[in-house]
């Protein structure tokens, strides 16, 4: 506090000294509450007064725009989506990942949102598998093999967050190509690279590696945390992926979660295949058997392959003995909604309840909460174009992102069936 007082007493101090005081002399808990752009959280209302921005309405408007764009793309052409995905997540752990432009550092932000992404990925793609790769000291290393357990991937990542050396994009692509070449033809091969560096230290011609990935039908996408790089953009253009650069932490979260839903299949590689699958039975709780995944004896839980009777720990997976794809019926049911997505709800313009031309229900059809704001005025709401049921913003997001069924349409369908 004395240093701060001395600095304030010296009115003729330079700007650099002021910046050092703001950024360097604050404790960690003080920096947590320091907002460098506090003016961005205010907006002017109709009367000219400043008030906080309604973040909920802003988030919902962004969500609605994204939903409409996806819907218009899907209706313009029947798009085939890859429901069985094999994704390698490549994380740059070079010294650039330890930069502090993302607070507290890039790698901490990456680890936080990678954990959320992995959980969201398996929630939306229950038949898919993920593997983790890291780039450090110019070498690409496989952190986890392809698998369907989010906990094992997250645990392995949290134990390997040390950053050092340079980054090598070519080594990562070569390693990924070697792994994904073994994937069956019905599987969609994807790579998502979280790149922090502004350069790549490669042992050979990376252009040849990019063409090899393109020939192997690997879709490569990159999210940059520093600045746009030509080689990353060229890689995504050649392989049919997407390239974007995160502006801040919230933007990074939005970008990485956009890769959770199944992307459109590449037209020239989108072929229909019949896939042989097995539905294993859950083993008895007290049974003792050798797990084919870990090669060790385990008591209880686990699943038994219907073809070779081998035991596996988790689903979905591929039997290590006979190679049969093992799934459960809920996995297939949860993948179904990507084939027939629910249509976006229509936004209802604000109007008065006293208007005789509009009959507005007072409660949300989903959560039964009131749709009225203080003053008996309707708030922001949406309506289903089929059943004409009104829903609040929270239910709108929940229906389209988690439930994937309209409660109003389902209830009317069941009531009609009962009458018949």
Which features characterize this protein?
6-stranded mixed β-sheet, 13 helices, metal-binding, 19% strand, alpha/beta, disordered N terminus, 3-stranded mixed β-sheet, General transcription factor IIH subunit, DNA damage, 420 residues
Give the gist of this structure.
The protein has 420 residues and is of the alpha/beta class.
Task: Present the secondary structure layout.
Blueprint lengths: L1 H8 L5 H10 L3 H5 L9 E3 L5 E3 L2 H22 L8 E8 L13 H19 L4 E8 L2 E9 L2 H9 L10 H12 L7 E8 L10 H10 L2 E7 L5 H10 L3 E3 L3 H9 L19 E2 L2 E2 L5 E4 L4 E4 L3 E2 L6 E2 L4 E2 L6 E2 L2 H7 L10 E3 L23 E2 L3 E2 L2 E3 L6 E2 L1 H11 L3 H13 L1
Task: Provide a descriptive summary of the structure in words.
The protein is α/β, with parallel strands linked by helices and 420 residues long. Helices cover 35% and strands 19% of the residues. The chain contains 13 helices and 21 strands.
């Amino acid at each position: 506090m004395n240093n701060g007082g001395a600095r304030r007493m010296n009115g003729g101090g330079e700007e650099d000294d002021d910046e050092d005081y703001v950024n360097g002399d604050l404790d960690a808990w003080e920096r947590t509450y320091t907002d460098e752009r506090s003016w961005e959280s205010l907006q002017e209302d109709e009367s000219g007064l400043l008030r906080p921005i309604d973040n909920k309405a802003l988030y919902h408007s962004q969500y609605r725009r994204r939903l409409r764009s996806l819907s218009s793309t899907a209706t313009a052409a029947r798009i085939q989506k890859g429901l069985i995905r094999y994704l390698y997540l490549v994380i740059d752990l070079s010294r650039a990942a330890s930069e502090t432009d993302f607070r507290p550092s890039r790698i901490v932000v990456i680890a936080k949102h990678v954990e959320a992404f992995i959980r969201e990925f398996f929630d939306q793609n229950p038949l898919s598998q993920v593997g983790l790769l890291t780039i450090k000291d110019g070498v690409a290393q496989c952190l986890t093999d392809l698998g369907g357990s989010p906990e094992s991937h997250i645990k392995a990542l949290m134990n390997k967050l040390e950053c050092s050396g340079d980054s090598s994009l070519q080594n990562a692509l070569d390693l990924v190509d070697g792994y994904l070449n073994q994937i069956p033809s019905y599987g969609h091969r994807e790579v998502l690279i979280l790149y922090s560096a502004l350069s790549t230290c490669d042992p050979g011609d990376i252009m040849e590696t990019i063409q090899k990935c393109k020939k192997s039908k690997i879709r490569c996408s990159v999210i940059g945390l520093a600045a746009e790089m030509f080689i990353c953009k060229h890689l995504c253009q050649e392989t049919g992926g997407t390239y974007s650069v995160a502006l801040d932490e919230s933007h990074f979260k939005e970008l990485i979660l956009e890769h959770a839903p199944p992307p459109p299949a590449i037209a020239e590689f989108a072929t229909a295949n019949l896939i042989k699958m097995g539905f294993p039975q859950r083993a008895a709780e007290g049974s003792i058997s050798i797990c084919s995944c870990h090669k060790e004896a385990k008591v209880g839980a686990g699943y038994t392959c219907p073809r070779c009777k081998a035991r596996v720990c988790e689903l979905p997976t591929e039997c290590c003995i006979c190679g049969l794809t093992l799934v459960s019926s809920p996995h297939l049911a949860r993948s179904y909604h990507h084939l027939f997505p629910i249509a976006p709800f229509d936004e209802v313009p604000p109007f008065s309840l006293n208007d005789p031309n509009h009959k507005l229900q007072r409660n949300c059809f989903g959560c039964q909460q009131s749709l009225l704001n203080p003053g008996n005025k309707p708030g922001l709401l949406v309506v289903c174009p089929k059943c004409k049921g009104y829903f609040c913003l929270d239910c709108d997001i929940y229906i389209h992102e988690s439930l994937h069924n309209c409660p109003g349409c389902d209830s009317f369908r069941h009531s009609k069936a009962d009458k018949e």
